[in-house]
Design goal:
This protein is of the alpha+beta class. Helices cover 56% and strands 16% of the residues. It has helices at residues 3-30, 39-51, 55-102, 113-133, 141-151, 156-169, 171-175, 178-203, 215-224, 255-265, 308-318, 337-343, 347-358, 393-403; strands at residues 205-212, 230-236, 241-251, 270-276, 299-303, 322-325, 361-367, 373-380, 385-390. The chain has a five-stranded mixed sheet with strand order 6-5-7-8-9, sandwiched between helices. It has a four-stranded antiparallel sheet with strand order 2-3-1-4, with helices on one face. A hairpin with a 4-residue loop joins strand 8 and strand 9.
Length: 404
């Protein structure tokens, strides 16, 4: 079994666990106490209280509409998991409601409305967090929150809280009971805090500073795990001897493996570790910011050369909608042996290398044996790089515009 397949299977198992916890919270702690949760289940609960139409059916219908609208923005991978979660939660809600009826519709915490609110909110927040961490969601307002979070550094809990506030407020129309609305707000705060807490814990990163007599071996070992490394020059002032400082940022869940790896290589290494409140960049989160200048932002494309005349010629050819940059302008030092070896390879290798390691859409020009000019373009997401070959610059512009 490949690593990618194993990861996908674990994601779907995690989603199954998450939606089961979520459905249990709704069935055993919200519906019996006439509490209104947020999201589409909250809307479904209001419909159920008002008409008797069961929650799972309205949940399924509303989600189907939202999924169709979000397809272009979120892509098939996210939506496939969300569709799976939506179907599973529809089934689990039906099964748990039948179980609840079979057991005689028990009130698990008696008449303690506050306890039902707290337990149900925590369970729902945990279930949502598990789904999000596995790359999916339970649908509904989660989908809207995921769309906003894709483009802005706004937490999922905050976005969902705003939508859920409106939904819970509407419960007054059905019950005419201020107390239930207030408990709904209490649920909302607790569930949002639980969601953000578990997601932050999962994404928490730590920074290692390693002072070792064998820094190269430690750096190579860290690189082999897929994490990046920076090595700084230093001096041990007490001994007046040169030292190398190895710096690396990893997820908190990876810290035990880091300590084990360092100890195996250099048991006498001096190591410090500190919490990092946010990490943006390759292998971590993506920076999402609004352009404060309020002017049309040009798409950046790297021409795989440092020839100033070639850069100027391509800028004139491709037009003002794009900003053409040289390799040096994006930080690629072609004098380094590693870069030089790769950038003297095929046009596809050049394009893929710049895209994969520096993140920019890349353009490489190539003449065949008959003198015909081709444009090789690399585009894609953080996880995938796609190579395209075009014979005309207008095709290149159309492709980059569509991609952007």
């Amino acid at each position: 079994m490949t690593g990618r397949l194993r990861s996908e299977i674990l994601d779907y198992l995690s989603i199954t666990v998450g939606v089961t916890i979520y459905a249990a919270a709704v069935t055993f702690f919200f519906l019996p106490y006439k509490l209104t949760s947020g999201g589409v289940t909250g809307i479904g609960s209001l419909i159920y209280y008002a008409t008797g139409f069961e929650v799972q059916y309205s949940y399924f219908i509303i989600n189907a509409a939202l999924l169709l609208m979000a397809l272009k923005t979120l892509g098939w991978k996210f939506l496939a998991k969300t569709i799976y979660a939506t179907n599973v939660i529809t089934l689990v809600l039906w099964l748990l409601q039948r179980l609840h009826e079979y057991l005689g519709s028990p009130m698990l915490v008696g008449d303690e409305l506050f306890m039902a609110t707290v337990i149900g909110a925590i369970a729902e927040g945990v279930g949502l967090a598990i789904c999000f961490m596995a790359g999916g969601s339970t649908g509904g307002t989660d989908i809207i929150a995921a769309v906003i979070n894709k483009y802005r550094n706004v937490s999922l809990g905050t976005v969902m809280m705003l939508f859920d506030f409106v939904i819970i407020s509407c419960s007054y129309i059905v019950f005419r009971n201020v107390q239930l609305v207030i408990f709904g707000y209490v649920y909302l705060i607790i569930a949002s805090m639980a969601l953000d807490y578990f997601i932050r814990s999962y994404r928490q990163s730590v920074e290692f500073k390693i002072y070792s007599r064998n820094p190269i071996a430690i750096a190579d070992a860290i690189i082999s795990t897929g994490r990046g490394v920076t090595i700084l020059d230093g001096m041990g002032y007490f001994t007046k001897s040169d030292r190398k400082v190895v710096i690396s940022v990893v997820r908190r869940r990876e810290q035990a493996g880091m300590f084990r790896m360092i100890k195996n290589i250099d048991p006498y290494a001096f190591v410090t570790m500190g919490n990092v409140t946010g990490v943006w960049g390759e292998g971590f989160d993506v920076m999402k910011v609004r352009d404060a200048r309020r002017v049309p932002r040009r798409q950046v494309v790297v021409l795989a050369t440092d020839d100033a005349d070639a850069i100027l010629s391509m800028q004139q050819l491709i037009g003002p909608a794009f900003e053409v940059r040289s390799l040096k302008a994006v930080g690629i030092d072609t004098d380094r042996p590693l870069n030089d070896n790769i950038l003297t390879g095929t046009a596809e290798d050049k394009a893929a290398y710049v895209k994969n390691y520096y993140g920019f859409d890349t353009l490489v020009t190539e003449h065949d044996t008959q003198g015909h000019l081709s444009y090789i373009v690399s585009t894609g997401s953080e996880d995938e790089c796609f190579i395209h070959r075009f014979a005309d610059i207008e095709q290149v512009k159309a492709h980059l515009t569509k991609k952007g």
